Protein 1
Amino acid sequence: MATLSDSSALTTAQLTSVARIMVAGAFFSTLGSLCILTVYVNSPTLRKSFAFQLVFGLALAELGNSFWPYFFMPSEGAACECQAVLLQFFSFASIAWSGVIAWTLDQATNTERKIGGPSAPSLAASIVGIGDPTRAPDVRKFHLAVWSISFILVLIPWGAGVYGPAGAWCWIDPRHGAEAHALRLICFYLPLWCVIAFQIRTYYVVYQRLNRVTLLASATAAVRADMRREARERELARGEGGDASAAADVNDEESQKDDADMEATLRRLLRRLGAYPMVLIVAWTFPTINRLNNYVQGNRTGHGDNYTLYVLMAMGMSTQGIGNAVVYGMSGAVRREAASLIERWTGVRVSDWGIGGRGSAAGGLARLARETDRGTEMSAPRAASSSKHDGGDAPEAPGRAGHEVLLEVDESLR
């Protein structure tokens, strides 16, 4: 039975070293994915979170994507085809879930309004329920879309009979010529870079929106501080002091702390947004270059295998699982739940080690929702009159389920 080295210009030793890099990366991806899934299954709080339901889908895809390297250089046949199917299915599913999270963040932060009322949500947002305060978003529809599309893209190369050796592992076999290279592009690399381009565009737009809200928050916080100072001066001029003055000072300190929490949350959100598309860019830049080299050099010389590019490809692909686990999964909420589970199971207080996270972004993001509504719906005089109610509970803003994405996915901000 033919081996991978029989269909590659690389030596067996070179292919083995590349495959070992993939196995090492797969091991850490498996650990990271299992950690997130374990915390999710054992945490009622996270299971209710729409945002973490999306992260759960991503972790499932990454867990499946970590299995195919364990087939370790299979010979042509059933094992090779099974590895190719797993690689195609779960690699694409992971990328698709990253795109879903980007799209959800875009919908969550889209608070711009048209003249005469709120802007109409997209058809997809209406179907899923994002932006509709009357119903919870339905994550099952995301699961149906992601897994169905991934399955269809597995069937296309399988029906064409092009699965086989593709370097140090099995995927779409380039020995099938132009048809195989076209299917590599259509079934994987073209959707991959479309998702990356969409992520870059989305996070740039979200960055601009949050930056505007941050400037608005800073300005309104300064205005409220001036109004509180003027109110305190009027009370002193009327001869009201003592306990009333002390209570006003306490309320003023609490309001300033609330404003500081909100602004710090926004600033950290802005810094973190770039990490999301970088996971895919780092993971798939060298694989894309290598596959282009396979095509170009293969047409020129009959083979397109370059050992250095395969090593860089394996190193890049190995970062995707652990990168997604850290960026999307290891938030403050997850760390706190993980610390709670470890304490419950072992009795060891790991929260004392600082593993459980340093706080919650809930306060800051609640203020974000209020500031967004004030900035778009209130003039300065109305904002001044509404400042009297800062101490009370704010009503939920439209699209609250969308804001939850920022709360739960980015709750490691503090």
Note: The two ends are 57 Å apart (CA to CA).
Protein 2
Amino acid sequence: MIQTVTTGTSVPARYRDDLRNARFPMPIRIPDSLPATEVLEGENIFVMTEYRAMHQDIRPLKVLLLNLMPTKIVTETQIMRKLSNTPLQIEVSLLQTATHDAKNVSEQHLDAFYTTFDAIRHQHFDGMIITGAPVELLDFEDVDYWDELCRIMAWSTTNVHSTLHICWGAQAGIYYHYGIPKFELPEKLSGVFEHEVVKPSSPLVRGFNDRFQAPHSRYTEVHADDIEAHPSLELIATSAEAGVYLAKSTDSRHFFVFGHPEYDVETLLLEYERDLGRGLPVSVPAHYFPDDDPAQAPHATWRAHAQLLYTNWLNYYVYQTTPYDLAKIGAEGPAREGEASQAQGEAQASARLGEAQTGAASTAQGAALNAPQPARSEAPAPRNPYLRPANEDDDGYDPYSDRREEPPLFEPDP
């Protein structure tokens, strides 16, 4: 269905003239002959053709997908499905590593739809997505394309406005940019797990339930304490069973998703059957099959939050903040760093206030030692140690926060 786009206060001024009276049905712009096009159209998702996109008076968001997965067609389709369901036009470019030979996709597909870093290194992009890869049990430096990946991640700090890292891509990114190590798990973590939002004020999880489901499939993990201890990082969502799920940099340039929200309903099943066929000692994916019975068909319980995650990232951290002039991407770094420093200063002030309050409380407690003690009540339920206040400021980066001051709806009476 063709949709008329209307403008409002939530649309940045630099885009309003371009959006006014624009008409477009669906945001994602991909090559007409890409295999994902037929799949998405078969799901009743209208895919914008290159011809139609070129005849719209609007600048699309440029998103670069670095696909490190061996099943490239499956992965590109899964991620484009998430990118498609927003009111934004997105031009997707596909990137592969030149220093690794892909064995599970045809050369014709790679030649037709993928490019290499040397071909785009002088370009700028609004967003970038780095996928996972089945190389978790290797040290980062032992991955055959690690040096090339490091060059791409270094380039992204000046040529990409916001980067989303997924699973092993998240582990690689948080290690490269912030030195956070990964640790091998006793066995493969596979299944659909419950998660808790620990920073509910973050626009990344705006609209999320307090607890939500998400798939994981990995052999390694990063530790929440390491992320919490780093001054340039913050936790967004964690799981009691699966560990860290969402984290981001305080300057909102790097996002880390340690699960697989893009997975189709049958992906974990196919991976489980593949691992069994290889004779690997894997357990049944947790909380995935009804009654944990692989004979029963699994149900997807994570689609809504997966879609909201991609939509929030694109809206709040790409579209709302990227410069209209792509050439200016990278020049906004100092301002963001200043905002992050201000947020850190406020956090330190809050910590000092908390210490003062703790000291006062200790004094009062000492004075009351001889007072009659009330009967003890049952201990409260354990609280997530990383949970942050629901009314905490969202780091000040978001000028379109729902806590901003609004002008009066009507002029006051004279």
Note: The two ends are 46 Å apart (CA to CA).
